[in-house]
Amino acid sequence: MLFYFRNLAWGAVVPLVGKLKKFYEFSLKLEGSLHGLLKALTSAHCSPTQHLEQEQALARQFAEILHFTLRFDELKMTNPAIQNDFSYYRRTLNRMRINNVAAEEENEVNNELANRMSLFYANATPMLKTLSDATTKFVSDNTDLPIENTTDCLCTMASVCKVMLETPEYRSRFANEDTVSFCLRVMVGVIILYDYVHPAGAFVKSSKIDMKGCIKVLKDQPQSSVEGLLNALRYTTKHLNDETTSKQIKNMLQAN
Length: 256
What we know:
The protein is mainly α. It has one domain. The protein is built from 12 helices and no strands. The chain has helices at residues 2-41, 48-54, 56-77, 81-98, 111-122, 126-141, 147-166, 168-171, 177-197, 211-219, 223-235, 247-252. Helix 2 (48-54) packs across helix 7 (147-166). The N and C termini lie far apart (48 Å). 30% of the residues are buried. Its main location: membrane. One of its GO terms (molecular function) is small GTPase binding.
């Protein structure tokens, strides 16, 4: 009977691990795509605003990546079964290997790949970490490009999203709440990337991002719809707890 239930559990978890593998592989593709988009949106031939106006399709793709990233990580944080299932898969696979039991599934996710996937999913926000690391690497790899080109691009996108969300004239044009969620996620996403690549971060007084305004926009939404985004600012940013961050901003981001 125990053998039967083990087979049943194994049969249920293998397809789920296959999905986790696809998302992990997708994260690797995102890194390359992000580098290409940033290169196009931060070149020196025009200002960030002009870039976003002239390359709207690329800006939209960048926004879509940020939206997907924040949405994926929100779902991941509320589904602890993801890591539990993957841990069970790895334990079972190791036990089968020790007992010399052949497992076709190992060809799909071998031990080396499983180790990399385990490190990826161990992060509370794995996709966001991928984008943060990729943006930081883009800046470090392109030393001929002033860092302001990247931070100003991110700052401009955050400002555009904030204005669209807080201005009734723009807000009234939104077809549905999905558009609101899209803008909120993009705004939070570019803030986090800015905080990682700017030497002083997004929360200092000299920051070009209106953090108080952005947090207010988030706080003005139904709490249930933005709690994950507020948590992303609280727990996945780099400089929030620095001494240079004002107490007002820290108080605004305190959990209720």
